[in-house]
Design a protein that fits this description.
- This protein is α+β, with helices and mostly antiparallel strands.
């Protein structure tokens, strides 16, 4: 058996070391197939797949947009919209109206306009384009929205107007008003919509079945009647 010389053994070790370093550097320079697949895979939310939001897109607005969730800066059914006019003499009278169940408001001369789902700027531009130049040359349209509130009264511990910040149900609204008094009729709670429609809710059943617990919209009124016995 031939013995390796010291110079041959040293050269072999050196060659193995160089090959190992090259392989290590190659691995660091490019991601593995598994890493690449993980970084590009969509995140699953519920039953839908949406792209992963990163950087600026990871803000609340970016995530809401990716999920298709409406943001609070857009008009909803029940919002009170005020339209003011200027730029002409005399200017048309201001128009104030709550957005109807079909999402529309109705203005003089131009008729029905869908307001729900639009931002203040979008609705303002649409109204401006409808009035100018068809009816006016220099008319300026300004759209405003008042604070969103709903009202809880009757047999609750702290009846008052409540600021509407998002989705809230009848039972949640009552709980935020201190809950029922001892004399409340929990089976005949009235939800009065802005268009005058009244819905009777049995809150005992609604607490067990969310389908029986309707959402409250801006401008709605909740009235809890008193028991007769």
């Amino acid at each position: 058996m031939k013995m390796l010389s010291s110079s041959g053994l040293s050269g072999g070790i050196t060659l193995l070391g160089v090959c190992g370093m090259v392989a290590l550097l190659a691995g660091c320079g490019s991601p593995s197939a598994q890493e690449a697949a993980f970084s590009s895979a969509p995140a699953s939310v519920g039953s839908a797949s949406v792209p992963v939001a990163t950087g600026a897109d990871a803000s609340a607005g970016g995530i809401a947009g990716a999920l298709g969730t409406p943001t609070l800066d857009r008009f909803r059914v029940g919002d009170l919209v005020t339209v003011a006019f200027s730029g002409v003499e005399p200017p048309p009278a201001p128009h104030e109206e709550r957005i109807k169940e079909d999402g529309s408001i109705t203005l003089p001369m131009i008729g029905s306009v869908i307001a729900s789902g639009k931002s203040t700027g979008e609705l303002q531009k649409e109204l401006q384009d409808r009035y100018v130049p068809r009816f006016y040359v220099r008319l300026v349209v300004t759209v405003k929205s008042l604070d969103r509130v709903y009202y809880v009264g009757g047999e609750v511990r702290t009846p008052s107007a409540k600021a509407w910040f998002g989705e809230v149900t009848v039972t949640q609204a009552i709980q935020s008003s201190g809950d029922f008094t001892d004399f409340a009729n929990k089976k005949k709670v009235q939800l009065i919509r802005v268009d005058g429609t009244t819905i009777i809710i049995d809150c005992k059943k609604a607490l067990k079945d969310p389908k029986l617990d309707p959402k409250v919209l801006p401008g709605d009124k909740i009235h809890v009647p008193r028991r007769l016995w």
